[in-house]
Amino acid sequence: MTDWLGLEGKTVIVTGGSSGIGAAIVEELIHNGANVVNGDLKEGDFKDPKLIYVATDVTDTDAVEKLAATAEEINGEIWGVVNNAGINKPRVLVDPKAPHGKYELDVPTFEQIFSVNVKSVFLVSQAVVRRMIKQGHGVVVNMSSEAGLEGSVGQSVYAASKGAINGFTRSWAKELGKYHIRVVGVAPGIMEATGLRTPSYEEALAYTRDTTVEAIRAGYSSTSTTPLGRSGKLSEVADLVNYFLSNRASYITGVTTNVAGGKSRG
User: Where does the record place the Ketoreductase domain (predicted)?
Assistant: First the structure.
């Protein structure tokens, strides 16, 4: 294996690395020779000698500090962190058909989404960047979403949370550049199915869009709004994340890259 990316032996933290896009990122990092620390609520199926699992509630300061300390202990520094952990619960702002009903946005749902999707990125990044400043380098990759760039019917709070992440990316890049720390974002669009696309998620999304679950599923497979005519592969997102973590991307910071097959304004 040629170490073209130069990630061999580097230590990278991935939050939410047990499933979905996070798991794909973890596996590609391992393939490229990195030491990976996965911070998630549950351990994933993938195992490797270079992969360490740390049970982590990413909204808890003490748990996040333990995650960062564990990563630092491997070889004395943290090369990069991928803020991937997140949740999504489709809701409409107002539901005229069922005011205050199941799929109308409420305060607990709002607070939960922002806690997991935004607060966690702040906590994890702060714990890791404290160490990166001391070591004089580092890379922060924030996982956003096409919804955060373009908006999305039935997913306004999720989109807003990812929009906040985009703001972190731009601002932290300006703050941290003087410490030789890069901050970049990756915004996937319609991707191949993962375990996160549950029946309850599909039911909620269908309701908020006044359509059926069958139509939602057909939309994933037809991808008529995507110029490339297909859903994205998780490996395609993982490839870009690995590239951004490498010194091959040494002059890229402060941007969020859309990985959506050309889809926009959809």
Answer: 10-193
Its CATH class, for the domain covering 11-256, is alpha beta
Which residues are CB-neighbours of 133 under 8 A, at least 6 positions away? 176, 179, 181
Q: Which residues contact 97 (CB under 8 A, 6 or more apart)?
A: none
Adjacency order of strands within the sheet including 80-83 = 51-55, 35-40, 11-15, 80-83, 138-143, 181-188, 256-259
Q: How large is the C-alpha radius of gyration of the chain?
A: 18
User: Phi and psi (nearest 5°) for 105?
Assistant: -60, 135
Task: Indicate the length of the chain as a whole number.
Answer: 266
Active-site residues: which are they?
A: 158
Burial class (CB in 10 A: 0-12, 13-18, 19+), 12: buried
For the chain, the domains span 11-256
Q: What is the pLDDT of residues 140-175, one digit of tens each?
A: 999 999 999 988 999 999 999 999 999 999 999 999
pLDDT in tens, 194-233: 877 899 999 999 999 999 999 988 877 766 778 888 888 9
Three-state secondary structure of the chain: CCCCCCCCCCEEEEECCCCHHHHHHHHHHHHCCCEEEEEECCCCCCCCCCEEEEECCCCCHHHHHHHHHHHHHHHCCCCEEEECCCCCCCEECCCCCCCCCCCECCHHHHHHHHHHHHHHHHHHHHHHHHHHHHHCCEEEEEECCHHHHHCCCCEHHHHHHHHHHHHHHHHHHHHHHHHCEEEEEEEECCECCCCCCCHHHHHHHHHHCCCCHHHHHHHHHHCCCCCCCCCECHHHHHHHHHHHHCHHHCCCCCCEEEECCCCCCC
